[in-house]
Amino acid sequence: KELRERTGAGMMECKKALVATDGDLDAAAESLRKTGLAKADKKASRIAAEGKIALASSDDGSEVVMVEINCETDFVAKDASFLAFIDTVANNALISGTTDVEALMATETDGVNLEHARQALVSKLGENIQVRRITRLSSDGHIGAYVHGGRIGALVDIEGGDSEVAHDIAMHVAALSPEYVDVDDVPADVLEKEKQFLISQAADSGKPAEIIEKMVSGRMRKHLSTITLLGQDFVKDGDVTVAQLLKQNNASVKGMTRLAVGEGLEKRSENFADEVMQQVKGG
Length: 283
What we know:
This protein is α+β, with helices and mostly antiparallel strands and 283 residues long. It has 12 helices and 10 strands. A hairpin with a 3-residue loop joins β6 (142-148) and β7. It starts with a helix and ends with a helix.
């Protein structure tokens, strides 16, 4: 029991390790650590596109970190040991001040190295588990933080307004995933590529050049409103844009970040944005 509490390994594995080391707890613990490392290495190539987004915040709310920790199945993502691990990871990320995963995994909690804790968890739960990303925001204003179902997380830095506005904007970012805050943030090459696409599309209409120019201009404005936070209709009230909401509250957005579990990894198709929108509009 003592070895199990110390290593997190299963009871039968602990028994085998103790038998093999003639009851030497330290030697058995080291043996289990090496076994866990071997298992972790073996599972490292397996796709881990499930998991959770976790948050940790400073006492005064001026700094918030958000981390993505992945596993292979939704079943493990709900496991108590996995949930305890992600809380530890998030807290260590906040305290350490790093956004580098390798540096974070070298930190310790209660004398246990995070990387060793991860390996032990892989051995215990039988799945590839990886700390994938860390993002943080520090602000003198209001930081809005929102996590939907542990699967999508958003942080926004708001100047002016209040904590409720900041939270609502974070919820909006989680739901609609704007790529940029404002039109001025859209790179010139992205603008040009979209413009050329719209021009070629409009040219097929056979309309006069001046009409095509107006068509392209209108479609460009519409496109920019869909990819920029300020241009989007507010998710909780489609009658106002985010820009109008901010103006009503004498607020502005200084920065934002969004994470979705498994984003960019091979995984089953799910529309989390629709799920978030349905929830916020319903409540």
